[in-house]
Amino acid sequence: MTNAILDRLIEGNARYLNASFNPGDCSGARRRETAENGQHPCAIVICCADSRVVPESIFSAGLGELFVIRVAGNVLDDHQLGSIEYAAAHLGCRLILMLGHTGCGAVSAALSGHAEGYIRYITDEIQRAVGDERDPDAACRLNVLHGVETIRQAFREHPEIPSEGLELRGAVYDIRSGAVEWL
Ligand SMILES: [Zn+2]
Question: What pTM was computed for the model?
Fold first, then answer.
């Protein structure tokens, strides 16, 4: 089941690389079907709010296929974890994908150490994830893996969340090539 979902995302990304528009189904018929029968997304995707990182396009997905949580730097706090819990427990999602991306401004801001205001809440979390790493691509990967571990820990601390058969994956999206590298 989970492998089939993973294959669906890998295949969707391959189609995206050669597409000039998102081939996902956003038709009126699909809209009416999901409105009447509810949503049954196959995967939860946590990713950056960066306008170049659009999960539905990246995976050639249409309406009702992905449960997407977007926040700058793909960091996690209780609101995001609550959203993940909801989708896992009530929508039946069996795959959680933490998706970082190259050229992430939040990661760069964390590495520079010059963030101010509310942005600090994001960069402090990324700094905790990356430690002394100063290479942006390596830091991005560490941030993704930190996110995966944070979710894993949340499931350990909350056994009431149905985590059986739930797969957690990390990946990095290349904003230039469009390819997803699975970690
Ligand atoms: Zn970003």
Answer: 0.95
What separation in Å is there between the alpha carbon of 104 and the centre of ligand 1?
A: 4
CA of 52 to the centre of ligand 1 (A): 9
Q: What are 45's strand-pairing partners?
A: 68, 97
Q: What is the mean pLDDT of the chain?
A: 95
> What is the pLDDT averaged over residues 108-113?
94
- The model's pLDDT over 18-62, given as tens digits with 9 standing for 90+, comes to 998 888 999 999 999 999 999 999 999 999 999 999 999 999 999
User: How far does residue 149's CA lie from ligand 1's centre (Å)?
Assistant: 19
Span from the CA of 138 to the centroid of ligand 1 (angstroms)? 14
For ligand 1, the distance from its centroid to the CA atom of residue 105, given in whole angstroms, is 5
DSSP string for residues in 25-83: ---HHHHHHHHHH----SEEEEE---TT--HHHHTT--TTSEEEEE-GGG---HHHHHH
User: Phi, psi (5° rounding) for residue 126?
Assistant: -70, -40
